[in-house]
């Protein structure tokens, strides 16, 4: 994944935002929408593209775009940096191939310790019961 190439491939659109800001909200387009075309990206290898398509299937449009919006701040610039960071984090997080889990066996001492602990608790509970009268 080459971030510099990906950053050049992004397209931005400013939208009127809702929320706090009073009259300011009605006048300025502070919400930012970023569109990233995953299929035509040169910043990603083919294997990375396939992995992202599988993992982010619900977030990708029919044209192969990933669209994110950010309108948390009143500043368009701050929203732009936030949405870029969110997109890059999303891509990085979903490109990573998780390590295969290796099955392990508990050690002999761990098994013995567990059985000894079980015996002690069983004895403790047995001693709480009233004695049987025949």
Automatic annotation (TrEMBL):
Pfam families: RF-1. Its EC number is 3.1.1.29. Residues 5-124 form the Prokaryotic-type class I peptide chain release factors domain. Residues 115-134 have a biased composition (Basic residues). Residues 99-134 are annotated as: Disordered. It comes from the Bacteria. The keyword Hydrolase applies. Keywords: Hydrolase. One of its GO terms (molecular function) is peptidyl-tRNA hydrolase activity. InterPro entries: Pep_chain_release_fac_I. The keyword NAD does not apply. Gene3D superfamilies: 3.30.160.20. NCBIfam families: PRK09256.1 (NF006718). This is Alternative ribosome rescue aminoacyl-tRNA hydrolase ArfB. It comes from Patiriisocius hiemis. The lineage of its organism: Bacteria, Pseudomonadati, Bacteroidota, Flavobacteriia, Flavobacteriales.
